[in-house]
């Protein structure tokens, strides 16, 4: 079965004065793994629930393939959903949970069992078919939820922060596993998270949301290295937003452009040799430092009062240990790592 | 113990550690038991002594000699069996009606927005805060031959002549259901409200229609509440007195009414005590049956989708 594209056309949803979805339009490609990323209250879950049919938009259209599903009941949309809290049925064992969507489709008892077992094998839970849900760990429950969502071969998969209840190591492991599952099945998948690293790890494209609007939609590398706004830059990782006046050319001259620049913390170096001939240079004084195992974090205060965050890999951190607050620090960055962004918009509180 | 052994100890406790843990658990249980002993004794005495007293009285003559005459007379009387049947019939019919009305009501309450649900809940609870006597006599006013209900029925032509709605089984049943409904709805509503909304959404996303979701997810997950509600209603109704006394008009005599009659008419303590024990046996049987039903349904729900 060919994967289907999804088209969102000017979706709008308000709760009283609060605008959860502000005319959101989005084209999701067939077979794509798209992540909706944003802080809480940005509208990403509302968007997902509108896709699932649990939230009815006031305006706009949702098309799956070329079929308008805006007013279609959730149980007729043929969408597999994985919820943050797993939403398994505690009164059924693992196998019955996974068989459930097949039994609804009047699949014969034998075939349902076979397909449920193969879905469970796929998430490596074949040996757990007879267990009660209460006997499973969080990670195992999430696998059962995955198996239950894929077993009826839906055309679309929605995942609402499915890993946020798991501990860090398991979460990172499951990220790769879910991505591999997606690649095997080729189902168009929309994944909601507020964890930018998770979004970068898993997605074909990331849509960054804020205040009910999509701020930027791009491939992970583009959105990380070439953010379209200060908000996206800072949300995607440790970003230093610099005014033109903060920087000088590394060779001592002045910079031609006075644009606002974004430099990632890990692209700032202590050694001028790391930034190439046309690099930029920032001077300031150390405000604080922290050792984090894989790297050192240095906080540097610039003359303008702006704070610079530097991440120095432990392997290249000669001199970091000796630095103490107040010491002068020169930071260097390659020109290509200084990405111009529009001047910061005045933040509405 | 070496460093590594100490580190692995919490994951796989050796035999000594396990035995020690068990001993601690035993000590803790004994300690808490000793703390609650005075309360247990007090409650035990207050609850059990009167029951033993009644049991003793049912096998005694007035002069204090052992006799089985009370029981022989009781068990051979057709009136006894008729009142036992009436009791079971009344409790069963009350339970069935409470379920038929209460489950949809609890569903509506649980699916309403919390603000509205709280207001509706007050309406459900209101009868519980009114004296049972007031309510029962209220029904009398409503249901009697020239009462409001019959006036409405004959006035609108739905019934050609007043219906016998009170001083019979029907009237008693109406009164009983009215009293028991809130007691049934509360635990069912609580169980339904606790169901994870995402479990219901998950069922819908997998293709389950609303009735199907109700049958396969909502009702099984609220079975605990329905069971406790059923237990309360059935067992409470078994020994109920006021409603059959007022609304039954002498036509409906479950065991509770028989006891009162035996006492007020014959002052027969032995006979009344035996009836009381009989009622207690009925309650125990009902509880055992509900427990058996729970095991049966519990097992079925685990394996079947």
Structure in words:
The complex is a heterodimer of chains A (349) and B (305). Chain A has 349 residues and is α+β, with helices and mostly antiparallel strands. Helices cover 24% and strands 31% of the residues of chain A. Chain A has helices at 44-52, 94-104, 109-122, 138-150, 168-185, 196-202, 220-225, 230-236, and strands at 6-15, 18-28, 33-37, 59-64, 67-68, 79-82, 156-160, 188-193, 205-210, 213-218, 239-242, 248-249, 260-264, 280-291, 295-301, 307-313, 328-333, 339-341. Chain A has a 6-stranded mixed sheet with strand order 6-7-8-3-9-10, with helices on both faces. In chain A, strand 7 (156-160), helix 5 (168-185) and strand 8 form a beta-alpha-beta unit. Chain B is mainly α. In chain B, helix 11 packs antiparallel against helix 14 and helix 13 (255-266) packs antiparallel against helix 14. Chain B is flat and about 75 Å long. Residues 1-11 and 300-305 of chain B have low confidence and may be disordered. The A-B interface holds A 52-54, 73-81, 83-85, 87-93, 96, 99-101, 103-105, 132, 148, 152, 158 and B 196, 198-199, 201-209, 212, 216-217, 220-221, 223, 301-305.
Secondary structure layout:
The complex is a heterodimer of chains A (349) and B (305).
Chain A lengths: L5 E10 L2 E11 L4 E5 L6 H9 L6 E6 L2 E2 L10 E4 L11 H11 L4 H14 L15 H13 L5 E5 L7 H18 L2 E6 L2 H7 L2 E6 L2 E6 L1 H6 L4 H7 L2 E4 L5 E2 L10 E5 L15 E12 L3 E7 L5 E7 L14 E6 L5 E3 L8
Parallel strand pairs in A: 3-8, 3-9, 6-7, 7-8
Antiparallel strand pairs in A: 1-2, 1-4, 4-5, 9-10, 11-13, 12-14, 13-18, 14-15, 14-17, 15-16
Helix pairs in contact in A: 2-3, 2-4, 3-4
Chain B lengths: L2 H6 L6 H43 L11 H7 L2 H34 L2 H12 L6 H12 L4 H8 L13 H25 L3 H9 L4 H12 L1 H16 L3 H6 L7 H12 L2 H35 L2
Helix pairs in contact in B: 2-14, 3-14, 4-5, 4-8, 4-11, 6-8, 8-11, 9-10, 11-14, 13-14
